[in-house]
Design a protein that fits this description.
alpha/beta; 5-stranded parallel sheet; about 190 residues; 9 helices; TIM Barrel; single chain
């Protein structure tokens, strides 16, 4: 499915949804040029609408970025100049420049099972260069199960494997890393924490 095939979301509709007590974040929204680069303009328009809603509600924006690092970084910088908004780079697997942009803007990076894949050392190095108080851990179910479950349907319980790898990346014991990333979640998703 492509954003170009669906009616464009409105900020008003997002604001109305955000009033529900279980609505704790905006998105997932973002740019994915891997399969749908032909809809880049519509994706960018949709992302900007979601950013506007996140700015107005101060609910965290959950961003998906794939094969669109330069455009994503540019949009995030431009939109941040219009006012702050909380944000997490969901299932982060982009390059160091986008990670630096996100961190410089005060956003969070979220580790998924990809971080634990054997060939993901470059990604682990990117996370290691980020401040621990800007790191989250996620399942991203049903895909991207970490080893030893790679290739299987991902389950929430498997996030512990990703967190163990994250603890290694930061040189922390598992319990300390789990507490820090849980605290980070509570700090970002204040409505959920309440």
């Amino acid at each position: 499915m492509s954003v170009a095939d669906e009616p464009m979301v409105t900020v008003d509709s997002l604001l109305q949804l955000a009033e529900h007590p279980k609505f704790v974040g905006i998105g997932e929204s973002g740019l994915d040029y891997h399969y749908t680069s032909e809809s880049a303009e519509a994706q960018q328009q949709s992302l900007r609408l979601h950013i506007h809603a996140a700015r107005l509600t101060q609910l965290p924006l959950i961003i998906h970025a794939r094969d669109a690092d330069d455009d994503m970084a540019q949009i995030l910088r431009e939109e941040s100049a219009h006012g702050t908004f909380p944000c997490v780079m969901h299932c982060f697997s982009s390059g160091p420049d986008l990670a630096k942009t996100a961190i410089d803007l005060g956003f969070y990076l979220s580790m998924s099972g990809i971080t634990a894949f054997p060939k993901s050392q470059q990604l682990r190095d990117i996370f290691a260069s980020a401040p621990i108080d800007r790191i989250l851990v996620e399942t991203d179910s049903p895909y991207l199960a970490p080893p030893p479950h790679r290739g299987q349907r991902n389950e929430p319980a498997y996030v512990a494997h990703t967190a163990r790898k994250g603890a290694e990346v930061f040189g922390l014991d598992y319990a300390d890393f789990a507490k820090r990333t849980s605290d980070n979640f509570d700090r970002l998703f204040t409505k959920a924490a309440a």
